[in-house]
Each structure stands twice: as structure tokens, then as C-alpha cells.
Amino acid sequence: MPQDSKKTLNLGGQLLDLSIPRVMGIVNVTPDSFYAGSRVAARTDEVIQKVGQMLAEGATMLDVGGYSTRPGAVPVGLEEEWERVEPVVEAIRRYFPEALISVDTFRAEVARWAVERGAHLINDVSGGTLDEAMLDTVARLKVPYVLMHMRGTPQTMAQLTHYDHLVPDVMRELRQKLIQLRQRGVADVLIDPGFGFAKTIPQNFELVRNLAAFQSLGCPLLVGISRKTTIWRTLGITPDEALNGTTVLNTLALQAGASILRVHDVRPAVEAIKLWRATMGVD
Q1: From 177, 228, 233, 277, active-site residue
Q2: I want to staple 148 with a disulfide (CB 3.0 to 4.6 A). Which of 17, 192, 266, 276 is the partner?
């Protein structure tokens, strides 16, 4: 496995340079996502307003999700998930044709439908463990894939937090899936350690401390810790008050080599990247 992380992504023929960290804005088309501020209805006007603001603030890509994966979330059927996602993807393609679209799904069919309608990237919280067709589907679609670490399902993951050695165990499980993706010819893979997914709060902080180790997998790192329980419970606040804590952990992630920050709040993440680069003396 290569030791130097790849620093580009091919997104629909557009080569994205990841030597400069990028921001992925979260667009949740769900009624029960843990942070209410991230939710949008599948109405064109609301989508346009939300997406337009994120792009104006500097988001490089948008991550559209129609299935809440917060701990204990109520399961959503395939058709309902797609009914939420489809109008949002189509609205973005119509009103912001240059925008890069990621679809947050663990279902191969939703991934296929989304790419057929113009999505550029698949963000799978399950790392291919919840739909056995996902890895083959991504290979056929020839799109970049976010390989995230999770055990179980959103309904059971909180009971699956035992690791013999957290970081080596997570890396081993990710490496096994990465090998399968490479065998299928998937060239562009992003690694997400899965903050909050089958991890306790202390384990999430352990991942932050050791995030740089994941670069040994040879893929760009995506970090999605925005406003999560690890932040607001540690600080004794609410998700609505967790922006400052998010910026702190995002900055630590940048220092550890993160290439993409997946966030609810685009402008603060863009500013964190700009200040981090200035501190590092990078133009």
C-alpha cells in the first residue's frame, strides 16, 4: 500500500487539487439529523438558498444526504431516501451546474441513481459493509468514493465500540476494504476514520490525536467531526453551540494532514484553512 497520500481527485473529468485542503458542505434532506441547522426541505427555493450560500462562502463540494445516520436514527426505506435526494441533486445541477456533488448513502442503488443524475462522488458511511453491491457499483460508475469506518448500523453502532487497539484496528478494517476497492480498479478513494460511528467520546479524541497515522493508507483524509457529540457533550453545551469546538478540532485535523473538512458551517472552515495555510507559510 502506498505511503504518500494522493493529492488529486477526478470528479467528472475535473481534476481537483487536494494539496490545498477543501471544504465539503453538508446538505441534509432529513427531518431528524442531529443538528437542525443543517436540514433543508426538498423544495427548490430552500435548496437554492442553502447551496448558494455554501458555494459563496467557499465550499468546494456539497454532500447531499437523505438518511440520518445519527446514533439510533429511525431507518428509512430505499424509495424514501431517493425521493429526498433526487430533487436536491437535480436542483443543484440545474441552478449550480459547476458545483461538485457528493451523495451521502450506503445504498448502491441510490449511488447509481445519483451519479446518473450528475453526482460526482459517493460518501458511504458504512465503508461498503451495509450493501454488498456498493463496491462493485462504485467501480462501474468510475467515481471517487469516501471509505468511512463504521461497525454495525446507525441503530446498533453504539454497542460495537470494543477494540483491542483502536487506531490499528480501525486502520486494518479500512485497509481490507481499500484493498477490495483497488482490486476492482477504483482509483480515487478518500479515507474517513468515522468519528462518532462505533466510537466512544474518548475514542474519538484518540482518533484526533492519531489522525496523521491514517495517511499511511495512501489516500486523502476526509474529516467529518462538525458539531458532533464529542464536542458538545465534552463542553456541556448543545449542537447549536458547537461551532467554536468544531473549528478547534478541524484545525487539529488540518495539522494532521486532512484534505477535506466535511462541515455544517462553510465560512468558518474556509477561514480555518486560510489561517492554517498562512501559519504554515503556504501561499
Answers
A1: 228
A2: 192
CA 183 to chain CA centroid, Å, is 23
Residue 142 makes CB contacts below 8 A (sequence gap 6+) with none
| pLDDT (tens digit per residue) in 108-152 | 999 999 999 999 999 999 999 999 999 999 999 999 999 999 999
Tens-digit pLDDT profile for residues 164-178: 999 999 999 999 999
> Three-class SS of residue 133?
coil
C-alpha cell at 145: 468514493
What is the number of residues in the chain? 283
Q: Which CB contacts under 8 angstroms, 24+ apart, belong to 155-162?
A: 155/72, 155/73, 155/75, 157/71, 157/197, 157/198, 158/71, 158/72, 158/198, 160/198, 161/198, 161/199, 161/200, 161/203
Query: What nine digits make up the cell of 181?
Result: 476497492
User: Whole-prediction pTM value?
Assistant: 0.92
What pLDDT, on the 0 to 100 scale, is given for residue 34? 43
94 is known as an active-site residue? no
pLDDT of residue 43: 61
Identify the CA nearest to 269 among candidates 279, 280, 258. Answer: 258
Told to judge if 182 belongs to the known catalytic residues of this protein, a careful annotator would answer no
Query: What is the phi/psi pair of residue 237, to 5°?
Result: -125, -160
- β-pair type (14-17, 8-11): antiparallel
Selecting among 50, 107, 112, 262, the annotated active-site residue is 262
Neighbours of 128 (CB within 10 A): 22
Of 6 and 23, the one with more pLDDT: 23
Answer whether residue 38 shows pLDDT above 50.
no
